[in-house]
Design brief:
3 domains, 14 helices, alpha/beta, Rossmann fold, about 45% helix, binds zinc ion, 4-stranded antiparallel sheet
Length: about 475
């Protein structure tokens, strides 16, 4: 096994060697639950789901922690606008995220801590930073505590920035700060804020800063040193830069690798509600099956920009159908009683592509080549060739979490239920047509074909029977 990943901190692809043999600790930043999930959130979770699955497929035992930021300025602002308790709003959107993740088959993390459940751990980290001379309570009695960026020489090293060129931290009143880039570890309680968003601390009542939350949670569950810290590219600065600074300033080794997924755009432009060029996971799931949405969001290299265009989901659906049609035809041919006894296999070229910083476009090319070879073998009635292709396709789709025969993609969703119902009805028509043909009743056979065609159903006849599909 020679896994190689791109590490944002060193800006290089290098060999991945877990800190503990055979085990991987992975933390990736989850949502600040202040609204519905957008496509960027889901792409990020999917990228780390693909990473997790590949590490597991490589024989590693993976511990995954993904946090929920359930206390934050934005949550308080939105809740006030809605005239709703902030904790109710946060929980409502946390469920919306869970639903979106579940719909796309994103594996549950090993643990999903909420920020509000880790205030004592955050206090301990702040106290440590003050003691080491890297943090200070604001002199204005606001209750704020700031990280002193000038006290930490490596500040800026994750994003390769010079401190003097960096943006000011816009997270608190700059008057109490030694440097405008100093960021809030603890935010003092202000008049008019909800009492439920207030925790006592040695520096005054208040609530935690966002960056501090992740550092405290990752350390609690994965230790002071762990293998991979991930998140969307938009989190690199200031969030991850600040996480790394405060944790390393506290004496923690922190992450060995930093992995960031690329953004999602719409026809080359950043999605924005004001421009109206947005599409969210809910809307995607209204026009495509969950398996198709997963395939679409997971097909690009995780570090590249994924550009959504109208038609993207139709193309993804066609790709999924090619895989699905082959698997169903091959399974029906080779295992008429079910897929019992089938051993999934991974082609070497697929493994090599995935080992190389998760090169999913190259891996998918191997998958589609195998499907083509499988179809050729099926047509040539070459059972050995069909079986080999089927095992490969099964192994590759399992590794990517897109195996169409998995129960995940059969249950739930009206579209799936409708497709299943349609399959039963059309297959009954096809059986009647096969019987008519056997009896040389060509009029009846043609009548059935015409009825199906009028309903928008195409039939492809082969020596092994007929396969139906919806007309494009
Ligand atoms: Zn985070």
């Amino acid at each position: 096994m020679t896994l190689r990943f791109y590490d944002s901190a060193t800006a290089a692809v290098r060999d991945f060697v877990p800190l503990k043999e055979g085990r991987v600790s992975l933390y990736y930043c989850g949502a600040t639950v202040q609204g519905e999930p957008h496509i960027g959130h889901v792409r990020s979770a999917l990228a780390f789901d693909q990473l997790t699955r590949w590490l597991q497929t490589s024989g590693l035992d993976v511990t995954v922690v993904r946090n929920v930021t359930d206390i934050d300025d934005k949550i308080l602002v939105k809740a006030a606008e809605n005239n709703e308790p902030w904790w109710a709003l946060a929980y409502r959107f946390e469920q919306a995220f869970e639903d979106a993740y579940d719909a796309l088959g994103i594996l549950k993390p090993t643990y999903e801590p909420r920020a509000t459940g880790h205030i004592p751990e955050m206090h301990a980290l702040v106290a440590q930073l003050i003691e080491r001379g890297h943090a200070y309570p604001a002199p204005d009695n606001s209750g704020d505590v700031y990280f002193d960026v000038r006290s930490w020489a490596k500040y800026g090293s994750l994003t390769h920035q010079n401190i003097d060129d960096m943006q000011a931290a816009a997270d608190a009143d700059p008057r109490g700060k030694r440097d405008p880039r100093d960021f809030a570890l603890w935010k003092g309680f202000k008049e008019g804020e909800p009492e439920t968003a207030r925790w006592e601390s040695p520096w005054g009542a208040g609530r935690p800063g966002w960056h501090l939350e992740c550092s405290a949670m990752v350390t609690k569950y994965l230790g002071t040193e762990f293998d991979i810290h991930g998140g969307g590219l938009d989190l690199r600065f200031p969030h991850h830069e600040n996480e790394m600074a405060q944790s390393q300033a506290a004496g923690h080794g922190f992450a060995s690798f930093w992995m960031h997924n690329g953004m999602v755009t719409y026809l080359g432009e950043k999605m924005s509600k004001s421009i109206g060029n947005t599409i969210n996971p809910r809307e995607m799931l209204e026009i495509a099956r969950p398996l198709v949405v997963r395939y679409y969001l997971g097909q690009a290299h995780y570090r590249s920009v994924l550009d959504y265009r109208p038609g993207s989901l139709t193309e993804a659906a066609a790709a999924v159908e090619r895989i699905e049609t082959f698997m169903h035809a091959a399974l029906a041919k080779l295992f008429p009683g079910g897929d019992f006894g089938l051993v999934a296999k991974l082609p070497d070229a697929f493994r090599a592509a995935m080992d190389d910083d998760l090169n999913i476009p190259a891996a998918l090319a191997v998958l589609h080549d195998t499907v083509r070879a499988g179809n050729t073998a099926l047509a040539a009635r070459d059972d050995a060739g069909t079986l080999l292709a089927l095992q490969g396709v099964m192994g590759m789709t399992d590794a990517l979490g897109i195996n169409p025969t998995e129960a995940q993609w059969q249950r739930g969703g009206d579209a799936t239920a409708e497709t299943a119902a349609l399959d039963v009805l059309v297959n009954a028509q096809l059986a009647a047509r096969a019987q008519a043909r056997k009896e040389k009743n060509w009029a009846e056979s043609d009548r059935i074909r015409d009825t199906l065609a009028a309903a928008g159903i195409d039939i492809a006849d082969s020596a092994d029977g007929s396969i139906w599909s919806l007309k494009k």
